[in-house]
Every structure is written in structure tokens, then in C-alpha cells.
Amino acid sequence: MSGTSVSPVASKGLENPLLKANPLLKAWQTPFETPPFDEIKPEHFMPAFEQAFFDHSAEIAAIVNDPAVPDFANTITALERSGKLLSRVASVFYDLVSAHSNPAILEIDKDVSSRMARHWNPIMMNAVLFGRIVALHDRRAELGLTTEQMRLLERTYTRFHRSGAGLDEDAKARMAEINERLAHLGTTFSHHLLGDEQEWFMELGEGDLDGLAESFVASARASADERGMTGKAIITTSRSSMEPFLKSAARRDLREKAYKAFIQRGNNGNANDNNDTIVEILKLREETAKILGFPTFAAYRLEDSMAKTPEAVRGLLERVWKPARARALADRDALQELIAEEGGNFKLAAWDWRYYAEKLRQRRANFDDAAIKPYLTLDNMIAAQFDTATRLFGITFAERKDIPVWHPDVRVWEVKDASGALKAIFYGDYFARPSKRSGAWMTSLRDQQKLDGDVAPLVLNICNFAKGTDGQPSLLSPDDARTLFHEFGHGLHGMLSNVTYPSLSGTSVFTDFVELPSQLYEHWQEQPQVLQTFARHYQTGEPLPDDLLKRFIAARKFNQGFATVEFVSSALIDLEFHTQPASASADVAAFEKKELEKIGMPEEIALRHRPTQFGHIFSGDHYASGYYSYMWSEVMDADAFGAFEEAGNIFDPAVAKRLHDDIYSSGGSVDPEAAYIAFRGRAPAPDALLRRRGLLEEPEAA
Ligand SMILES: [Zn+2]
């Protein structure tokens, strides 16, 4: 920040001995200046946030009150330099909220979310600041900017404009109110969901284990252990527990009980019920869109995306829906036949699908997940994801034991580039525990940038895999292994980032582009070359037998009707929530039912995320009317991997270099469509997605 006379930026903290002792406010004397998690306590956060808000406001005031004519340096670059302390405190805080919370942290979170909105509102709606940005934006062609600077100016202008910086004062005041309320509601939604997930478990007695693999029972014991029920075995609503249970538990009554608990999260009429929260969120989002001049929230949200319009999103989803539904219905009939063959006298229900699909897969592909699991140890799959990155991008990984972490299970690696220079620090937090929210994600504690010297990013992968017990390693299902590579693909997007300005760093791209680096990386996980090297039996060390490998790869296309239906219906309902008037979804369950009837949803399949547990779209607005993004990105990833196949080498150096330069390292510094075309030489071919999911082929008979 260039010096002006506005505020006593640094003095507030230094005079207060309590603040001086706060590890969040001190210089970090740790290796690579990583957060000293071992010293940070919940009571440090609120004072640190207050200091960070104060500093940031002062930095913004300095830009606003700068008497000099606005130029790129005194406005845009100054904005990029502002708020460092705030991002430092917030990134540590939100890591703990998601990955290792406790009642004290969650209590602070309730205050922080509204407080954060109150802090950002006057910045994002500051008329003088916006005036400076507009003045520069109007003259952008004459400023002699680099490509990255031009992109930064355009993105900054768009961000402020879309936040309501150009509105009149009354409208701004209402927007501010709404933002604050929405922040509170998003936090409420995720706390409710976490609450229901923490409360529910189902104990498995000796007679309840029929069909369950030994490794599953071991992880069920580990889950019980985590909750202080040593010696027992439980299943939880975490996907890593629920999915394998539904696939293999022979007891139909237990499957039904577990399944119902899973799909009822947030919808139990208890203190954690999310229905009212959803209704209010949708109403406020609609009002926001109208204030900003858009007919619907989806229209507002999608304007700033690759898809651009709700119609484009609907077009893609409907194109995929038809063949996926047809495939699912054919599979449903095959599953019903299988039940009849086994002498079952009941109609296939939702809690039966995974179980019989798994049986059908064993019959058709002679393959089941449990057979491959012993070959997929977490450690070996981590080695595989690292080795793939080394071959593609020349980076190497060395584990460090001296870096403070938030939980003893967290592992840390130092990442170096081909010249041996520090590239990033990578944290892996792999196991499920009650203090962690469900799902898997990548985030960062510090982003790459070069504004004031090279800053190496601190990148995190958080998963919810089942831990091994009794000295057994953690064994991954094929889905888990895919998730591992997915999140690591996001991780690489953060670690390989090579931009100057922090707000364009790594994953700071459109939501419908951000899943490209992650989904593309999944392709390497299922390559024979990779599996032959890294998939080894955890007891014998034997490599994956060839025929099992072949059956595994063939089985990947199995049950894709179900998976695609589950996903596309969720994406469609997200779109409906945000294109129809909010009044239409005043009764959330009725709305869900009506919309699913409209698209002919098979009644044996539920949404992958039912509304009251749809954290993607209700915990915050990041994926709101944006759940389709995974599929939008899939059109690109399915097509992008083809570049390696065409080269005849999945590690082809020339293709890998383009992938690095155009996709993984460029962050938000270029237009995503241009980035893709630079990599591939053309726009993506849309059928690659259907082909990859096997939805272009005729369905097989049972
Ligand atoms: Zn992702």
C-alpha cells in the first residue's frame, strides 16, 4: 500500500499485549511460515478477525482517499495488496470450521459469517472506490496493460459491478441487509447438516454383518472408536461408510433404515431441520437478482460463467438426461429380474439399487468393489497421484514431519519444481471423523502470487476415507481412489499456479471451469499403466492381476445410468430452484416431488443431494445454480484427455506442457474458453462425455 495519512493501520494491535500474544497476529516462525496450528486456540480468532477487519478497512480507506488520479497501481494493485491479514486469519479459521471443528469454533462461526458480510458490504458497494475502478475500466485500452493486468481489471470491475456497487443508496442498503442475512443462513444450513450427521449412527451387531467385507467391518469399528464406542461397529452418514454399506449389506431391513437416515438429513423436523432455511435463502436470492436487474437468480449467477445463460445449462443437462434415464430404466428392469431370479418377492426399492447393481456388475463384469479394495491402499494411491504429477509436470514431493497441523492424522509434503525450487506445501487430511463435515474438498491456507516476490501456496486436500484398524492400512474403494485424484487435481491447480496477482491465483476461475483440472486428473487414476505400478495387495504386495485390472476398467461404465440420473436430476432441481419464482418452492418437499415427476425421475433413485442436505447450493452461494458445473467441466475433461490418447502416450511431454501452461498454471489470468482452445486447438467435442459414461452404447441385457 502506498503511504497516505488516513489511518493508524498497525498501531491498534501493537499497543495491546493480549493481541501481541495472539499467534494469528504474530509473524509465523514455522517452516515455510505455515500456520502454527499447535498454538492457535478458538479464543484467538475473534480478536484476530477484529484486527484484520480494522487493518483491511484502513487499507481500503487509503485507496479511496488517495488524492492522486486513479491509476492501475494506486487502485487495482493496491486492492490486490489489501486484506492480507484477513485472508490469513480466515483461511485458518475456515479450515478448522470444515475439517476439525468443535462447539467453540462453531459458535464463533455463527458470529463471523454475519460479521464478514458486514465488513465486505461497505467495501464492495463503496461508490468512490467503484468510481476509481470505472474510470480505469473506461480507459482500459489506453493503459498499456499486460494480458494478466487487463484480465484483472475486467474481473475487478465485474466483481464490484455485480455486487451492487453501482446501485443507489436505498438499494445498496437493502443488498447489505440481504448479504448479511444470507451469510447467516448459509452457516445455519451447514451447522444443521453437520448436526444431523453427527447425531446419527447405526450400530451393527454380530447378526448384522451379512455380506459386509472384513475391511468394511474394520472401518465400522474405527468409526465407533472415533466416537468413543470402542469395541463396537457403526455406520455413519459419511459417503465412505454409507455407499459400501448399501452396496453389500445383505440385510434388507438394515439397508432401508440406513438409506432413509441418509436421505433425510436436514429434513427431520428437529432443531437441525433445513426446510425453513432453504425457503428464506431462495427468497432473498430472488430479491438480490431483481435489485441487480435480472429476472431470476440463475440468470444473475450464470451471466458470470462459461455457460452464460440458464438456457445453455438446461440444454446440456437435457441432452444428457434422456440417454441417462433410458439407461437407468433398462438397468432397473434388469435389477428387478435379478431379484425375481433369486426368489425375491418384492419390488426394487431405492435402498436395494446399489446392492443389486453390485450383484449385477459381478455377474456382467465378474467384478466387485471388494475384490479390488485390498489393492488400493491409501498410501499407494497417494504415491500414484504424486508420481503422475512428477511425470506430467516435473514436480516432486517429500514428506515433512516438522510442520504444525490441525489434527494428528494430517500429513504434509514439500513440493519442488524440476529445478529443485520450492513450489508449494501440500497438506493431506484423509480420514473421516466427527469433527469434519462430509464430502471431500481442496482449499488453501495461502495462495500463490508474485506481486511482492514469489509466494509459494499452502494447498489442502480434505477427504472422508475410512481409517484402517488393527495395524491394517486404509483401503480405498474405486470411488474413493477417484475422489483422491479429483481433489489432487484441484490441488495441482493451486500448486502449479503461476500468476502475479493473488485474486487470479489457482482455482480463482469460473465454477464451470474449476472442475476441469480435477476431473481431468481422475483419468490417470484408471490407466492400466498407473494401476499396474501402484495397485498392490496390502498383505502380499502382489500387483493387481491382469484380468482383475481389465474387469475393473470395463466395470467403470457400469451403473452409469444411475450415477448420471442421480447427478443430472440434482443439477436440474438446482436450476429450477433458482429460475422459478421463490414462492413456488415455499414447500420444499412438494417442490422436489413435483420437479422430479416433471422429468420422469425413476422412483427407485433419489437426488444425489436432496434439498435439505444440498450443501453445494445452500451452505453458501458458490455452487448455487452452479451444480451443473461438474458436467460442464466434464464435457471438457472427457475431450481433453483425448489429447493424450491421440498422442499415444498418457504422459506425452508436449501435451503435458500445454496442459501445464494453458490450464493448470494460468489460474484466472486468461478467459477459460480461450485457455481451453489454446490447449486443445479447438472447442471440446460434446459427445466425449456421453461416450466416456458409456451412454452412447445400447444397454446390455441382464
Ligand atoms: Zn471438484
Mean pLDDT: 93
Number of strands: 7
Total of helices? 29
Roughly how many Å apart are the termini?
68 Å
Main β sheet profile: 5 strands, mixed
Secondary structure layout:
Elements: H1 11-14, H2 17-20, H3 45-64, H4 72-81, H5 84-99, H6 103-124, H7 127-138, H8 147-162, H9 169-199, E1 202-203, H10 214-226, E2 234-235, H11 239-248, H12 252-263, H13 275-291, H14 297-303, H15 310-341, H16 350-364, H17 369-372, H18 378-393, E3 396-400, E4 411-416, E5 422-431, E6 441-446, E7 458-465, H19 478-495, H20 511-525, H21 528-534, H22 546-555, H23 560-579, H24 588-598, H25 615-618, H26 629-647, H27 653-664, H28 672-680, H29 687-692
Helix pairs in contact: 3-4, 3-5, 3-6, 6-9, 7-8, 9-13, 11-16, 13-14, 15-16, 15-23, 18-19, 18-21, 19-20, 20-26, 27-28
The structure holds zinc ion.
